[in-house]
Amino acid sequence: MESSMSKPSPRCVSTPAELTLSAQDSAHLAWDLLDIHRRAWRDTSRGPLDRRSGEERPGWLDMA
């Protein structure tokens, strides 16, 4: 069974975007993304909304 996320919607339009971030902004963004992933996986029995069957909490979430 394929995920509905694997096929773009007929109404979906892809538009390229360019971001210019300073080193400090990049570091803040990385920490924020890490925090989002940790929150999504705080309940390891449930996990994030897009969790695949059998997927486990990534070990790299505990490295930083």
Residue share in helices? Answer: 25-40%
- What is the rounded distance between the termini? 35 Å
Work out the helix count: 1
Mean pLDDT: 86
Q: Could you give the count of β-strands? A: 0
Roughly how many Å is the radius of gyration?
A: 16 Å
Largest sheet: none
Q: In terms of structural class, how would the helical and strand content be classed? A: mainly alpha
Beta-strand percent range: under 5%
Write down the secondary-structure element order. H
Low-confidence stretches: none
3D architecture notes:
- This is Half a barrel domain-containing protein.
- The structure is a single chain.
- This protein has 64 residues and is mostly helical.
- It has a domain at 22-44 and 59-64.
- It is 28% helix and 0% strand.
- It is built from one helix and no strands.
- The chain has one helix at 23-40.
- It is flat, with a radius of gyration of 16 Å.
Short précis:
This protein has 64 residues and is mainly alpha-helical. It has one helix at 23-40. The mean pLDDT is 86.
Supply database-style keywords.
64 residues, mainly alpha, flat, Half a barrel domain-containing protein, HAB_dom
Topology:
Layout: H1 23-40
Protein name: Half a barrel domain-containing protein
Organism: Ralstonia psammae
Domain Half a barrel: 15-61
